[in-house]
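Might you be able to review the protein record set out just below?
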Amino acid sequence: MASSVTPAATHTSIHSDFETTRFFLPDLVSDCHYPLRLNPDCYPVSRASEQWLLDGARLAEPKATAFMGLHAGELAAACYPDADAFHLRVCSDFLNWLFNMDDWLDEFDVDSTLGMRECCMSAFRDPINFQTEKHGGEMCKSYVGLLDYKVSL
């Protein structure tokens, strides 16, 4: 059965006399029949999570401003509209940490990336006894500290 949904945007380009490429971007938002829900704790949890990351990552301008534009806390609040404030904070902190770590790793070479992996895994395994001065490792220790072993797997 063919879809009657009209694409939201199209793009056509001609690479040569014989080759034309075209792609369609469907309007996924209009086709969604579910209401957009936002966790009622969205804004206080998002602001607390952003502050946690800014303090832990020690981001300087313009990276701090770029990070604030991600709105990872709001994304978490839309993905988990029924979560209590604690569990929303766990999700929001993870997304903020993940997006920031991705940005950091984009600037690393292979050896530095492997070193950060080892540092973070060690911090996750033993957040009390593992010692590091790497911001990524300190943030991992802080994240596990937030969990305080209350989250059941």
In short: The mean pLDDT is 84.
